[in-house]
Amino acid sequence: MARQIQLTIASTLPRKAVPGQGVLDVSVTRMRVRPGDLDFYLHVNNGTYLQMMDVARSNYIADVGGFGLLKDRGWYPVVAASTMKYRRSLQLWDRFEISTRVLGWDERVVYLEQVFTRGGDLCARGLVAGRFLARSGERVPAPDVVNLLGDVGESPLLPDDVTRWASAVDVAAR
pLDDT at position 174, please? Predict the structure, then answer.
C-alpha cells in the first residue's frame, strides 16, 4: 500500500523537470527497502518491484517535463507488457537506485529498461512495453508521445533481446 501512495504522490505532485533532460536520457530514482516491501522470505516481493518501477516511470515523465504536456492532451500511460530478471535480492533498509531509460519505440509501443542497482551491483532488470491512451479510449501512436516529450527523430535500434521479447509477447507493431 505504501508504494501505491508513493506512486500517487509521484504522479499528482511530480518532482521538477530536470533542465536539459532528454527523452533518451537516463532518469534515476533512489529508494530504500521498507518493511512493507518484503515477503515471507524477508526480501523484496516480486510484485513490489513492479510497483517501484511504476514510481520510477512517473519520475521519468516528470524529469522530461511531461506531466503537463500529457495532461493537456488527455493522454496517460499504461503497461502493455513487462518482464523481469532478478540477480540479487534487495533486503530490509537497503538503499538502491532504479535507472529508467527509453530504449526505442515503434508505431504502438515505447520500450523502456528499468535497472535496479545497489552500490553499483545489478539486482534486477525490467523491460516494459508502454502504450499511451487518450481519455476517449483511443490508442495514441508512440511516435506522437515521444515527439511531444522531446523531438528526437527516429527510434534508436532496439536491442535484439528486446525485439525478440516484444515479438514473443505480441506487443510489437505489426
Answer: 65
- Cα→Cα distances 59→13, 43, 89, Å: 10, 24, 23
Q: Cell numbers for 89, please give them.
A: 535480492
Tell me: the pLDDT tens digits for 91-150? 999 999 999 999 999 999 999 999 999 999 999 999 999 999 999 999 999 999 999 999
- Cα separation, 57 vs 75, in Å, equals 15
C-alpha distances in angstroms, 116 versus 63, 76, 92? 18, 24, 15
CB-side neighbour CA atoms (13 Å) of 14: 22
How many CA atoms lie less than 13 Å away from 41 in the CB half-sphere? 6
Which superfamily, per CATH, for 2-11+23-168?
Hotdog Thioesterase (3.10.129.10)
Residues 47/12, Cβ–Cβ less than 8 Å: no
Q: What is the pLDDT of residue 136?
A: 93
User: How far, in Å, are 110, 114, 164, 172 from residue 158 at the CA level?
Assistant: 11, 15, 10, 11
Residue 37: pLDDT over 90: yes
- Residue closest to 38 by CA, chosen among 77, 86, 82, 89: 89
pLDDT single digits (tens) 115-127: 999 999 999 999 9
Residue 119, Cα to own-chain centre: how many angstroms?
21
